[in-house]
Amino acid sequence: MKNLFWILITMTLSFQILADDRVSIAQGEELEVVLQKLSLLPQGQASKFAVTSNKELVISTTGEKKTKHDDLAGGDDALTGGYISVVIEENEFKKITLDNFSGRLCPTYESLQNAFEILSSYLGRETEIVLKNHPNIEKCD
Q: What are phi and psi of 39, to 5 degrees?
């Protein structure tokens, strides 16, 4: 069963630009800037994310595959990781998709709940957050 949650962007998050255009999400500034940047990636392309053991969501906004999930976590033991994509229609966030495709972290589908909780705690009901079970079967058991 798909985990869906309708959210309206009413609250804000802070982000800190890190090396190679990675963004660390924490309470305080605007998440909208990060999501808008992700929505500008070519259609069908997602960007990597990780959630650190401190429950910090870290997103690479470049869409580059060269960024490693464990690097996003800053050497910290990550709770989850994978890819995030954003769909914007008529200047509104319509859908955020998170998946667990990571050959370095090998996260479970259930672990995506960590990223879901961070995003949904700051967003309202008009944007759909979808968790997709897409493990890297070549590198993970």
A: -70, -15
Are the CB atoms for 76 and 53 separated by under 8 Å?
Answer: yes
Alpha carbon distance 136, 101 (integer Å):
5
pLDDT in tens, 2-28: 222 222 222 233 334 444 455 566 543
Number of neighbours of residue 26 by Cβ within 10 angstroms: 15
Q: Which helix (H) or strand (E) segment is 88 a member of? A: strand 80-89
Name the residue ranges covered by the structural domains of the chain: 4-132
Token pair of 128, please?
Answer: 């759909």
pTM of the model: 0.78
The answer to whether the beta carbons of residues 18 and 24 sit under 8 Å apart is yes
In whole angstroms, what is the distance from residue 22 CA to residue 17 CA?
6
